[in-house]
Specification:
Strand 1 and strand 2 form a beta hairpin. This protein has 406 residues and is an alpha+beta fold. It is built from ten helices and six strands.
Amino acid sequence: MMTRIRQRFFSLRHTYGNPLDRQRAQVLLFLDIVIVIVTVLTILLLQLPDLLTSGYVDVAGFISSIVVVIAAVFSYRFIQQGRLSVAIWIVMIAITLGTVSAVIFSNDGTPNISSTVIIFLPVPIIAAAMLLNRSGLVAITLFTLLGTGAAAIFQTAVRKPVITIPADVAVTDFVLIAISVLIILSLLIAFLGTLQRVASESIEIGKQRQLINKLGLELGSATTENEILGIAVNQSRQIFNQPFVDIYLSDDDGNLKNAAASGQRRTVIRSIESNIIAEAARSRALMTTSLKDDPARRTHMAASTSFAAAVPLIVGVDLIGVMDFQGVAAFTANELDSFQQLADQIALGLHRVRHTSELESRVVDHEKTINRLQSQVQDVTRRQRQKCGRGLGQLCRRTRQAGHRL
């Protein structure tokens, strides 16, 4: 149940190539959900009890809460569509305006910077530090300070005394403090968690690139195509920790045959199909797909995988084949770059052994031709000698016959 909820609401459906954008999108996605939950709790725990006990409705606070919820919902939708910048500014403007308006209209519609609500002031600044660049952070900070400064100026004109009974506001103050602390805690947890994942991914990518370079050296010592295919497939699966890595080689008809024989459903893919393997071969470009795409594009995928990438093996203008990667999570831009780097190494290795085999075949053909010509020369020489021998014999006999007559 929890897994389905997490996948449904807390997972990014759009693939962000930049790790930093993916980090900010994940933080904002989490923040949007927290904002909706906290705002609903604020209405239920603060505004609704005030309405039931005193009949007073904080119109400004209620409107601000509704606006923040609507902004969070739109921000969530824009994140899933890949429009991260719009999503960030929508929620940042809503949070900042909501926080500043709570100070300006704090006490019966009058400004008050001496109430518990000012604990919310760091929230938009912390969110801006995690989601925006330095210019955006400065802009949000200045707007917050200007709004608070304006509230302070207006508050200096308020001379009416306010009587507060601590027992009456203890629960309200505690709820406000707890909510602000929980929001800040949620932001920090989301940011630190995604930051750690980005750092771990960078370290992992560095290790993968080193292993790919080492694999290139190992492929350079291989002498046959089968040896290269075996090394390439086995090492690739270990490097990326993916059991579903295969190589499809192009035949004379342009079709693609699974050279690894890993037991997948598709062993041959025709060049005219919509499958991304065939599409990558036709376009000579890297292609990706997922379970959300047309089934015709993913007929080669294993039942236990959700995402696939097809990387063409190209040397110069020659297409050797297509490399197939499959996994349960969406591939990042760094992973796709690593796939391409690996495919280039394998393509060079296959091209080298094929070129070497072709040269060796030519050498063998030339040796056969030379041997055949040598045999023909020897045969001609032998025949000439035989003819010369017969001619000399006839000449000698004729000479002796002439001598006898004399």
